[in-house]
User: Fold this.
Amino acid sequence: MQLFEPGPFHYLNNKLFCEHKSVEEIISTVGTPSYIYSKQYFTERFKEFDEAFNDVSHSIFFAVKSNFNLNVMKIFSDLGSGLDVNSAGELYRAKKIGTDPSKIIMSGVGKTKEEIKLALEYNIKLIKAESLEELKIINDVAGQLDKIARVAFRVNPNVDAKTHPYISTGLAENKFGIDASNAEEIYKIGSDLKNIALTGLDMHIGSQITTTAPFVEAIEKMAELYTRIKSFGIPLAHFDIGGGIGVRYKDEKVFTPQELATAIKPIIKQLNCEIMFEPGRYLTANGGILVAELLYTKKNRNKMFYVTDAAMTELIRPSLYSAYHHVQPVVINSERETIKADIVGPVCESSDFIAKNREIQQCQAGQKLAVMSTGAYGMVMASNYNGRRRPPEIIVDGDKFYTARGRESFEHLLWDEEVIKEI
Ligand SMILES: Cc1ncc(COP(=O)(O)O)c(C=O)c1O
Assistant:
């Protein structure tokens, strides 16, 4: 069984550590299932990305959707990152940590009037529009508030990001953005709206992209479009490349920010504008693990099952996208043989699994397992299905750890729910 030890997650004397803290020790205090994040990892990833583009006018907006824990958001914010929010709920979180409105941008293919109003009232840097119809609504809401809304259209460049179909967003058949072929027309119409300032152009072609080629192809197309739109006299000032930078979950060969910079700088430098990025997964995925306890081991026919106390309710990525996550014991016993097992949760769905037919060291009930690379799109997608209480999130900083969010209680499950006598 191959061990995966990204960044500050490493084994010391057969025990898994996050930075200088033993995972076993954290778990003995907080229990399982629990998410554990590394502040050092988040910090190093942000700095690596930022430095790769230090000779270009650029800003990074952490895609909050990948991990919206207030303290994770604050770590990035304190490093100078902006925040990309996708809903009023995420905007509320950004406000809660006191983010400067000029460092917040809002995405979303179906923003409601209420969300648009909240964004305008908070005076955020930018709203990204995904259709002309939406732009007209933004114009109306801005008019009612007597404001000018700063907007960029998300343009769909029709580029194949060569990723899982559920996380590909830049193909003409996807629901996202406006079609590149009529973007010029739409910009012209939009620029006549009284309460709109079209300040930029935006793209986001998908997630977990593992080569630079789709970025280069899309950015080339969008850079041309950007220049044409500017030539109509629309004073664009920023080009937003979106997120999507892939990470290693299994054995993927991924590119570094430096390699991305080398590939795209010749194009973006010519635009002479602010280049914006919205990385999520790149910053957070390998900075987190989900720790579970093995509840039972059993064999049905010839198949071995390891039933853990973590399920699709804590981590839905395997069920949703057949995503791969390394699963490894928190404490290794090197004398044990390696077997193959399905690692599953207690939820009553056959799609409730963490890993299928996975090589893992033979374990026994009570042992703790680490599900690696779960810092992105993990806790944010957790649910209460089957009446399960969502797990805590712990942040390690050196040899200290903090509960960044506690484990949900039974009371949380019944929040705002009453038994109505008349029914
Ligand atoms: C508009 C937008 N920006 C940024 C991101 C972040 O993507 P990633 O986590 O792949 O970097 C997403 C993810 O879906 C997105 O929809």
